[in-house]
Specification:
By secondary structure, this protein is α/β, with parallel strands linked by helices. Helices cover 33% and strands 28% of the residues. It has a six-stranded mixed β-sheet with strand order 7-8-9-4-10-11, with helices on both faces. The longest helix has 16 residues, at 169-184. The radius of gyration is 24 Å and the shape is elongated. The mean pLDDT is 89.
């Protein structure tokens, strides 16, 4: 059972550009799934296809086990979304904007609209600003109001496209806390982002896009295990240390000034250190270093990510 699944999902534009190239997404129920990749990697195009806003060239997608876009009328009332930034009437209040949004939903009950709008505003921390005009909202408040629009009805899935894009650190923290709260309530969250801080702090699973292809998908611990840890030995005889590391079967052993290093692999750090000492190598320092998330993403995409926020 998955909240989102795709099979060979592909989008080629009329000019010939292949924006999304046969991707197979599998988003578990209850996950906070970080959909990551540099600008132009196909994230927003994928989200638009998931929601029926764009048609795939080939392949298919399902939301909550309902095929899209054919099943849009059967499933979209169970899905909240924010795609490519919020759009509201600047001269209306936050509450009135949500009222217009709710009135456009043919499946919503008008008799409960006022209570549902108040509840959505309270969930995103905007109840006190309900009567404030939208044009006077901060960027963070505007993003939270957009998320509130997705929470006017009970939702099983929330899809957010770069919800912290352009926000200052305070606005970013507000939206990040809101995503945690939504996930804690049992809603599956699918969020595209380029901020590694969001991945580490709120996501349970990730999918990484590169030039339209899904180059990794899995949990955060699985992603970390894709990076090879290296052992570094500080010694007065790095050449001898490198020979010992090679003899132990460690790959990519190199000697540098006052140290030697190699890929640890499946070797035990304790065994490596003991063999170095047994071979007469004087060990001044011994450390194991795993690649950071930033290193892993650069390796997967060939580009750096914004690590701030």
């Amino acid at each position: 059972m998955t909240a989102i699944s795709t099979s060979g999902l592909t989008k080629r534009f009329r000019g010939g550009q292949l924006a999304v190239d046969h991707i197979d997404l599998a988003v578990p129920h209850g996950a906070v799934y970080g959909f990551l990749g540099p600008n132009g990697s196909g994230k927003t195009t994928t989200i638009r296809m998931l929601l029926g806003l764009a048609y795939p060239t080939s392949g298919g997608a399902s939301l909550l086990d309902v095929p899209m876009p054919d099943g849009a009328t059967r499933v979209l009332h169970r899905v909240g979304s924010l795609v490519e930034g919020p759009a509201f009437y600047p001269f209306l209040t936050g509450a009135d904007n949500l009222g217009r949004y709710d009135a456009a939903d043919r499946t919503a009950d008008p008799a409960t609209a006022r209570a549902r709008i108040a509840d959505a505003l309270e969930r995103v921390g905007l109840l006190a600003a309900a009567k404030k005009r939208y044009r006077h909202y901060s960027l963070g408040m505007k993003q939270r109001l957009a998320i509130a629009a997705g929470l006017l009805r009970p939702r099983e899935l929330i899809i957010l496209d770069e919800p912290t894009n352009g926000l200052d650190p305070q606005g970013t923290r507000e939206v990040r806390a809101l995503i945690r709260q939504i996930a804690a309530d049992g809603t599956t969250v699918f969020v595209s982002s380029h901020l590694l801080a969001e991945v580490e702090q709120i996501c349970t699973h990730v999918g990484v896009m590169r030039t339209g292809r899904l180059v990794f998908q899995g949990s955060l611990p699985e992603l970390r295990r894709t990076g090879a840890a290296r052992v570094t030995v500080q010694t007065a005889d790095p050449e001898a240390a490198a020979k010992v590391l090679t003899a132990l079967g460690l790959a990519d052993a190199v000697a540098a000034e006052a140290e030697a290093s190699a890929v640890l692999g499946d070797a035990s750090p304790e065994q490596v250190c003991a063999e170095l000492v047994h071979a007469g190598v004087g060990v001044r320092g011994f450390a194991i270093a795993s690649p950071s998330l930033e290193d892993l993403f650069v390796g997967l995409t060939g580009e750096g990510f914004d690590v701030s926020g």
